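explain this chain.
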Amino acid sequence: MTETAPPAVPISGQVTLPDGRVELAPGTPPPSGPYANEDLLPVPAAGRTWTTYNFSALWVGMAHNTASWTLASGLIAVGMDWKQAVFTIALANLVVLVPMLLTGHAGPKYGIPFPVFARASFGVRGANLPAVVRALVACGWFGIQTWIGGEAIYFLAGKLIGDGWSDASHIGGYAWTMWLSFAIFWAIQVAIICRGMETIRRFENWAAPFVLVGAFVMLWWMSGKAGGVGPLFDQPSRLGWGGDFWKLFWPSLMGMIGFWSTLSLNIPDFTRYGRSQRAQTWGQALGLPTTMTLFAFLSVLVTSGSQAVYGQPVWDPVQLAAKTDNVVGLLYALVTVLVATLSVNIAANLVSPAFDFSNVAPRKVSFRAGALITAVLAVLIFPWKLYSDPQGYIFTWLGLVGGLLGTVAGILVADYWLLRRTRLDLTDLYRSGGRYWYAGGWNWRAVAAFLAGGVLAVGGADFDPLVDGRPIPALAPLADYGWAVGLCTSLLLYVGLTLARRPASR
């Protein structure tokens, strides 16, 4: 068994710069072999150039999207008022910011992506477990966002072409033209992927402000329909602030946390380009909570307005935009949805799983190939079922995602901060037989902590509408707190198992 704690002496083959960042020592050849490729190697310190502004802009681009909109508006649809919904989302983003910053620390310090970072705790081979779990979650998100983009095309074409498009015959519960729209939007994204990261970066530069302006335009339109902003604030909660609200609050909070629990794991994929720890810390702290809260505020006001105007909340912005008879306004609104969906889907749901799938077979799967694998699996996950209603979307999908990924976050934080005190050996992260090889490339302690945390987090969850019933009914009381249960269980168990037996000396 190789060691699981850092040595007290400097690690050979790497140097620590005055600002605390670490890179391979000059003259040291880059890692090679079956566990390394160009996309997974550490970024040299000179290549870590992202500033506070860059990280803040990244979050603006990722948060201003249709899924974020429906996240907030969905809370209105299940009975909250605007104050309760904004409070829930703001608190959730402050909570998830903590593991985001803790796991993000390894990025600017070592220049490594998430799957390589996970090798320190799970093992060089074992890191494929959390990487694949994270990648499959991203596939689900990519599919959901692609379905949203397809909806926008479908409604837009219906307004322009007429009833022949909108009232087409149904296949599998949806018009065949909706399936065609879904395929068209999927193909657009694949085309952007094939053009490479530079095209993606140029697209992201202008997408975020365009989307924010679109959100304010929708607010202006809805306030005009409602007769002013007053009715947007006046819609009462169906829950009050008593027991009914708090019963809904906790699973909603876990769902909101689950929304960004994916990024709380793979944020090193982005922070590895950070100029300093200060840049990633302030960039994320300024970008995530403020941006998400503002966008949530706009969303819940517009959804409250739709309740005042139409008698019931319309939580899907695509369907809400389709209610206007102004073709120019509709065109602008739906193009905004398309741009927003492209922006977040490519940045948040393709970059990371591409690295994750590349980590499974570094010598055979490139970053681009990993992105294409993601796009294909996104269709096979049936995203239209996940997005079919706010109840299933918030409590089933986001709750399960948050519970599982919370367990991984607990292990990463425990290993990197509590046990290793942020010290890693760059070379050993890419080779067999080193300190992160454990037993055959797997650290059974991390796997055990992941399984135990995962069972407690989601074992008692209601999987409807995916499947009927709860796998372990006795664990139902824990289901509303899945993310917290998974994170705390895996963190404590991993630390306990690691400290129970002192690591052997090298």
